[in-house]
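Below is a typical protein record.
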Amino acid sequence: MQSIHQSFERLVDHLMDGGFFLEEAVELLERTLITRALARTKGNCSAASKLLGIHRNTLQKKLIEFKVERKPPQKAKPATRKAASGS
């Protein structure tokens, strides 16, 4: 099994061979991490920022900077109770 380090080294080589500049590579990485964190947390910015290890305000700035559209967080549906049948 390949280590994360080896995979990362191959990614860096691929980016450099493809003509990516550092700024583009960093933006690509940040954008991908942010969108994945938001997907995993169902759009919850507080939870996504904790997952990423950044302040919520920093996440908000990155969302604006990268023009990432996000869906509002999905709220859990309240559990419905069946009416007791009393005869």
Observations:
- The mean pLDDT is 87.
- The chain has four helices and no strands.
- The two ends are 64 Å apart (CA to CA).
- Helices lie at 4-17, 22-40, 45-52, 56-65.
